[in-house]
Amino acid sequence: MDTMIPQRPLPSKEALKQFYMHKTLTEIPKPAAVLDLAIIKRHCNSMLQTIQTLGVGFRAHVKSHKVSHPLSKKKKKKRTHRRNPHPKSPLPTNDNNEKTTELSRLQVGTSSPEINYVASTVLEIESLVPLLREFQSKGRKVNILYGIPLVPSQVSRLALAAAELGPDSVSVMIDHPDQIKFLDTFSRIAGFAAGVFLKVDCGYHRAGLPPRAMDKGGLFSKLEELEKTGAGRLVGIYSHSSLSYGGRNRGDALRHLRGEVEACLLALDSYAGVLPVDRELVVSVGATPQVVAAEAVAEGDDAELEELRKFLKEPDTGAFKGRVRVELHAGNYPLLDMQQMSTNAGGVRERFFDEVGAYVVAETCSVYNDGEREYPEALVAVGTLGMGREPCPSYKGWGVVGPWGLPTTPQRDRLYIDRISQEHSILRWESEDVAKKIPLSVGQTVKIYPNHACITGAMYGWYLVVDSSSDPDATKVVDVWVRWLGW
């Protein structure tokens, strides 16, 4: 069975490091995507502490970063625990796994006995296999969820990834009865059952079934038959709502979190008669604004924290009498972006450049300060193909320029991308002060913070890593992380 699919070729990590290491951001070719390791570590450590304080599970979404070395074509040796009829797995090794999966490592920490991820492409899952096997070798239980409803072209690749990791390692998402039949192929290739999460639609309407309409087309009876054949096993129910991105404060985000949990509990209550009670079911909920809001609550020590902890640890499952464990999931939180900052889920933080750990560096092409236009403007050499074109509710532009290299200006007045084309953008002051000149010179490098880091990152083959904990200006490249590109 040939499951290797062509992927876009990238330079090796070694070649990239040889070129970029120890250069400054003014010396490198631009535009370039940059990560600040100090900010990312802070966010990851804070999230892990929050999960511990709340006493709930956590599933890290490999979302914004997708970082690892490009896959080689070496093949794994047969694992002794597998019952795999295709023992020559095409899953490749990663000779540089130690450093290039650093962000995925930071998301799960070093102490939790359980490692849970969710990823939306099979390539991400395949690429994480070496790291997951390393975790297993240290006695840590691993599970990774394919985070969109199952499609047939991905089944064999998922099964081969599972075969490398063993039973209970890979789960799939189901929201339609016709997806059930694909799991026969999964179990035949992997040699064991796939874990199953049922997707609940809590109002966002991207995927999933309404809490009171989960049994579409006899879904539960088909799932029961699947379990009898050993091809699948229900693990839990899963909800993700990006409605919280429309919130403007911590209270909004927490209301969305509570609403997601309650929708999942309603599904359990509505189908109590057909859901299994011989196991603990996972209720997996969340999005970055909700989890960041929970993080802010966990930093306190008051009645609000106790109420949230009790709500998550002792959920009211109604007629369903089985055991339930709430699990939070999030993906953008290590990096954040201007969309995330606009939610104020973690409180109002005006110094966005201290919180957002991803940005693009670009060069100034030209400056128009001398009355050529209605407002002073500058042209920079990055556009939609380097920034994306994602809107942000808190302002009308496509990215915000950080203060690095600029003279001090009132915090409320910022340079931002006012107009954007394919390969270039126009900067303007938010204040639209016709007398206020743009303080840039031709050739000057600027840091532009994206509205949506996940989309912006996808424009680049690798990230340049800086570290503001040892380099306050965060200008020297200390590492290169190669992205996973493809599906």
UniProtKB/TrEMBL annotation:
One of its GO terms (molecular function) is D-serine ammonia-lyase activity. Residues 357-467 form the D-serine dehydratase-like domain. InterPro entries: Ala_racemase_N, D-amino_acid_metab_enzyme, D-ser_dehydrat-like_dom, D-ser_dehydrat-like_sf, PLP-binding_barrel. It comes from the Eukaryota. Keywords: Lyase. Residues 64-86 have a biased composition (Basic residues). One of its GO terms (biological process) is D-serine catabolic process. Residues 64-99 are annotated as: Disordered. Pfam families: Ala_racemase_N, D-ser_dehydrat. Belongs to the DSD1 family. This is Serine dehydratase domain-containing protein. It comes from Aspergillus flavus (strain ATCC 200026 / FGSC A1120 / IAM 13836 / NRRL 3357 / JCM 12722 / SRRC 167).
